[in-house]
Every structure is written in structure tokens, then in C-alpha cells.
Amino acid sequence: MSNADAVITALRSGYEGLADLVVTLTDAALAMRSGASEWDISQVLSHLGSGAEINQATITAAIAGKPNPGLDFAKSVWARWDAIGRRDRVDGFQSTNEALISLYEGLDEHARENLRSSPASSQPDPEVHEALPA
Prior knowledge:
Number of helices: 7
Distance between the termini: 25 Å
Structural class: mainly alpha
Low-confidence stretches: 120-125
Helix content: 55-70%
Number of strands: 0
């Protein structure tokens, strides 16, 4: 198992464990303070969901040989996540993380070992581009 495979496997396992837990939380539980003293539990899920969305956009751009989406894109994602309700953060956390991990799992060995994100990237690697799941 390559390092990339081990990381993807750990991401899948961690995600599934957390996803199984958060669907059981009540609205009151989602409003409770988290280990991050200024965030409630739903805001932690927002952080994880928005991060997954940003990472998916970054990986998709890298596969296509396009620049990293950048800080303005990230800020727009954070603003959108900040504006949604607690229960929507649970749903969004689940869907965006599932999509990101599935994207990672769908990459072939070449892409897993060679894909890099670069602001200066302008030409896609044809072998990596073919690894993007349809």
C-alpha cells in the first residue's frame, strides 16, 4: 500500500466514523461548544465541509492543469458555509466529504503519486487528467 493509499484509507475510515456520529446529534447538541472554544459543533462540521469543498476544487483544477482556485474562492466557500443552518452543516459535511474522498479513491496510481497543485500550472498531465472519475 502506498502512502497515498494509506492516507485515503484513513480519511475514509475517519469520515465514516464521524458521519455515523453526527447524524445522531440533536439540534441542541449541534449548538453545544466544541473543543474549539469559539465554535459550536456545527461550526466544526462547517470547517470540515468547507475544507472538503475547497480541496475538491483544488484537486479538480490540478487534474485539469488549471491554477489553484485561490483565496477568493476559499473565502466565498467559507461565507456560504457560515450562512447555512446547523442541520444543513451536517448534511453538507456528509456530502462534500463523501465527494472528496470518492474523488481521491477514483484516482489511479499515477495520479495519486504525481498530482500536484500549482498556481502556475497551465498544462494538464494527460495521464492524470484521465484519472478523474466521470
